[in-house]
UniProtKB/TrEMBL annotation:
InterPro entries: Bac_transglu_N, Papain-like_cys_pep_sf
The protein's name in its UniProt record: Bacterial transglutaminase-like N-terminal domain-containing protein
Domain Bacterial transglutaminase-like N-terminal, chain residue ranges per copy: 7-61
Length: 61
């Protein structure tokens, strides 16, 4: 019997005036080589108009 873990992360920005949205770098995806099996993973980004670019660092993360 293994340990089951649920993680939820939310980053939210709130500004007092209108701002432009610029690129951000977020590393929130499980590494494909992790020893613990990932049963489910999802990523939701708002606003709906966004661009995702998956990258790995030199260590494969």
């Amino acid at each position: 019997m293994g340990i089951h873990v649920v993680l939820r992360h939310q980053t939210e920005y709130d500004f007092d005036r209108l701002v432009q949205i610029h690129p951000h770098v977020l590393r929130l995806r499980p590494a494909p080589h992790c020893r613990t099996p990932i049963l489910a993973y999802s990523l939701n980004v708002e606003p709906a108009r966004h661009f995702l670019n998956w990258q790995q660092d030199p260590f494969g993360n």
